[in-house]
Amino acid sequence: MKNQHLQKLAKLDMAQAPSPLTFTVRRNPPELIVPAKPTPRELKPLSDIDDQEGFRFHLRVIHIYPQNPKMENKNPASVIREALAKVLVFYYPFAGRLKEGPGRKLTVDCSGQGVLFIEAEADVTLKQFGAEIRPPFPCKDEFLYNVPGSDGILDSPLLLIQVTRLLCGGFILVVRLNHTMCDAFGYAQFMTALSEMAKGASAPTTLPVWQRELLCARDPPRVTCTHREYDEVPDNNGTILAPDDIEHRSFFFGPTQVSAIRRFVPSNLKRCSTFEVLTACLWRCRTIALQPNPEDEMRMIVIVNARSKFSPPIPVGYYGNVVAHSAAISKARDLCNKPLGHALELVMRAKTEVTKEYMKSVADLMVIRGRPGFTNVGFIVSDVTRNGFLGLDFGWGKAVYGGPDFRVSSSFTRYTNQSGESGILVPIWLSGIAMKRFIKELNNLLAPGNKDHLIPEHLTTLSKL
């Protein structure tokens, strides 16, 4: 009886693919929002961390808000539109356009042309999305219209925002941003400023700081660290998914699930963080699901916020990219056959390798090698649980969901389920058949009597060698 109770507590909590849901979204024409006051007309170079190939894309972030009876006479689109014009006075580079110079160097032309904004309404309620508002979301593209000609990296708007009001009085805010301008930390800073202005503040609590020269290459540039995250490697394991064979699910890990996984942490690694142990677990389960050749190298890329690595520290208010993509690498044979501690140790080591010198070495590598992109083969994870997305309040209270929507990486986000339990939500993208194996392995891991991971059937012969 006790085991049955534990099984219920630690069972895998995942979001299934959404049921068909039909609704209509009516949009106003896209408009350019310019700063509410005149701003400096100048050229502002990005850092050599900002303008690498791996950040030259548009990242989408979804924020979902329920009804607030006290705000029923307010239009969230109007409130956010007005606040956006005000916040752009402080964050005026976002109203500019990117230009590319010699050596592929990117510079922001602070032209004041503005950011794109769309007001919309949908004949659907939050309740129709299900008992829990979490990815995958049905018809999510309806909540962010890709304005023709807006998704380029150069000479294109750096922000696209759509606010969609729902029948229930709630709304969905989706932001698409050019990643060269900021990382998740910087984005959260900008959005916090936007929320403060929406509630009547005359200036952000944290004023923005540019100073991108802090993360520019040295003279002369010199690569002093090993950067496996920029290796060019073939995709032997189906990491790059075909568009017609992608299954997306999100998995919730509350205290019970985390405790069940921590049973497998060796005593010498007990001080590991929840992010580290979940990353190691998911990397291992994902590898088993992919059924790679036992001798293949399996990669895990962990996105590390390096702000705390600098002394003197990066200034408060700096909103540029201060992240590294540190790589952990293991043979598939070892990842699948060895205890979880093997993967966990590699994850922890990858995080600790990121130092101030490491970041300087990355900046120098960009200049020397022409700003290469990251290896797009492997499992990429990031931790945005501390960025406060759920706490962003535009006057309607806290969000019920807030997080990036980007299938190349799995962003760990803070989430509260329908039982009021706080935990971590992790999106996973795999082929259909690999997803089934992934879920089976995770369920096996959470099973109460499991003393260690079962070795996958296709590797049992290897374990006997």
Automatic annotation (TrEMBL):
Tell me the InterPro entries matching this sequence: CAT-like_dom_sf, Plant_acyltransferase
- Recall the GO molecular function terms of this protein's record: transferase activity
The answer to keyword Hydrolase applying to this record is no
Q: Which Gene3D superfamilies match?
A: Chloramphenicol acetyltransferase-like domain (3.30.559.10)
Keyword list (alphabetical) reads: Transferase
Q: Report which superkingdom the organism of origin falls in.
A: Eukaryota
Signal peptide positions are: none
Indicate the family of this protein. Answer: Belongs to the plant acyltransferase family.
Q: Which PANTHER family match?
A: ACYL TRANSFERASE 4 (PTHR31147), OS05G0315700 PROTEIN (PTHR31147:SF66)
**Protein name (database record):** Benzyl alcohol O-benzoyltransferase
Gene source species: Deinandra increscens subsp. villosa
